[in-house]
Amino acid sequence: MTARAEEVPLLRVRGLATWFVEVGRVTRAVNGVDLTVWPGQVVGLVGESGSGKSVTALSILRLVPPPGRVVAGEVWLQGCDLLRLPERALRAIRGRDIGYIAQDPLAALNPVLTVGAQVAEVLRRHLRATRRQAWLRALELLEQAGLAPASALARAYPHQLSGGQRQRVLWALALACRPPLLLADEPTTALDATLQADLLARLQDWQRQTGSGVLLITHDLAVVAAVADVVAVMYAGQLVEWAAVEQLGLAPLHPYSQQLWQAAAHLYGGVAQAAKPAVTAAGAVAADEGGAAADGCRFAPRCPYVLPRCVEQPPPWREVQRGHWVRCALV
Amino acid sequence: MVVYIVKRLFGMIPMLLAVTVVAFLLMHAAPGDAWDALINPSIKDVDQLRQVQAAAAGWNDPLWHQYVRWLGLFVQGQWGYSFAHHVPVWQLVGPAWLNSALLACCTEALTLVIGVPLGLWQAYRAHSWWDHVWGGVSVVVYALPFYVVALVLLDALAFHSHWLPAQGAVGTGPGAGSLGDRLRHALLPAISLALVNSAVYSRYVRDAVLAASARDYVRTARAKGLRERTVYVRHVLRTGLSPLITQLGLDLGALAGGLVVAEGLFSYPGLGLLLLDAVHSRDSNVILAVTVVTSSAVLIGNLLADVLYAWADPRVRTAGRESQWPVNAR
């Protein structure tokens, strides 16, 4: 989407669709997502809970829990389509070429292994390190993630650490093998502001050093504004807008993005704007369960500018400016 | 940990005292005593003889007095004599306990050997045809009264095929009383008990493994690119099966305390059979001694369960020691 003729994109996702198929009920959690991450780029994937952000990341790793299943699409990373790779080859890529930071750090760490062992494990798997080498390297990584004193805390179990410390452990193990691609699912949610700033600064440092690409899933627009190069707005399993962060920050085009930005401006705008009522998307995100509604725009039921044609046919995914894509019939 | 174990051992004393008080009171509330069970009521001067015996044995003293006297002697190791068998009580309880302990070990080992692999396999093939079949079979086996399972096996393995002895704990002839001989005798009751118990274990293992596989940290392990075997051994089984250890400790304690029905069915001379016999003959010293040994076995089993669980799960082991680590939001 950004023209970089000399480079190949790091990650190219095309037409990704992940459905949860249960008896008598199909939930299309992800339904036709296209996205590209270039080396050294941070793509912020935003959207409300249930819009399919996390499932997108898990689909890329092919770790969608049953009854979820990737039903269509391609995920190209370093010349391989991950969705068509044998399980064995994919296992060699997970952890080594794709780092994954899961959402809830307490649940994502094994309660009966020390955090140091959990970091060392990924090193031993991919770098053929000896037990001792892996442990020493794990200490370094924990130190780099800001866990101090690492030599003592590495022997602690997850329940003995604070929320911020656990988050640092997850960062350390995701970045352990210096993966070219990092999938970070809400990596700073539930942390206080100073901690968030510290982790994001470390992320940018790390990314500058290694030139890695990052897919940063969040619902916090302030985080996106701080670190992302490109923003992808997701709604009901589809991307509705894709643009450089400056472009989107100035002029979001999709009605949903506009509402998201106005709500954020209201929240962060302080007392001066507090009198102005917040514009929020009324109603809840509609999970796409097929049927008649699947034809038109997903956002139509909540859209203030809805027209008859919005309900009748799906809106096109169009590049309205260079590198600025929108899925809306009105733009 | 040592301090914890010692504390728990001391904590058992009041519980054991309570158990003996209840046993003592129940025994005296029931009609008849050892004398009635032993003596021929039609002999001459039976009432007078009874008076003499009662006075000599202190049976006319207040109940609490009798209890304290029994307790005082018991803690000194004087467990008294059996009225029915005319031998010191420990000569009956000792061998019976050994038999029960052997049976408990055999049962538990067989239960683990049958139940755990079956459960693992059911979890591995979850929701398949075989999973449903085995799930159904285990429910049926568990729901059947134990004596049905026991009698079917007794008929098949002892009476028809003569593979295993049908009763007793030691055989006759050369090799009688050797460990092999004792194991052979313990095998039939152990198999019956293990079949019923492994129905529970396999169900438990299946569900525990399935629940553990759905946890976030298992996904993290897969996202690290670990091999499936490592994912299962280190992440799924390690956490999923640790509650099984608790079950194991509890069962071991309960089994080592003797089983009245199983030992009765197979005429296996363990604590359960001894207790049954002692109750029939109102043999109060034996009843009290078996009660103490059985309750101790259960209590120690519970302690074992807690200690093993703490060993397997650091969240329990380190409870209350969090302050050792600098808890710091940064």
Overview of this protein structure:
The complex is a heterodimer of chains A (331) and B (330). Chain A has helices at 53-61, 87-93, 105-108, 115-126, 131-144, 150-153, 163-175, 193-210, 221-227, 245-250, 255-268, 271-274, 308-312, and strands at residues 11-22, 25-37, 42-46, 68-77, 80-81, 98-101, 181-185, 213-217, 230-235, 238-244, 317-321, 324-327. By secondary structure, chain A is of the alpha/beta class. Chain B is globular and about 85 Å long. With 330 residues, chain B is mostly helical. Chain A binds chain B through residues 58, 61, 63, 65, 91-96, 98, 100, 102-104, 107-113, 118, 121-122, 125-126, 146, 148-149, 152-153, 156-157, 159-165, 170, 173, 192, 195, 198, and chain B through 214-217, 219-227, 230, 234-235, 238-239, 242, 312-315, 318, 322, 324-330.
Straight-line N-to-C gap of chain B = 32 Å
List low-pLDDT spans of chain B: 320-330
End-to-end separation of chain A in angstroms reads 19 Å
Task: Assign the structural class of chain B, choosing from mainly alpha, mainly beta, alpha/beta, alpha+beta, or little secondary structure.
Answer: mainly alpha
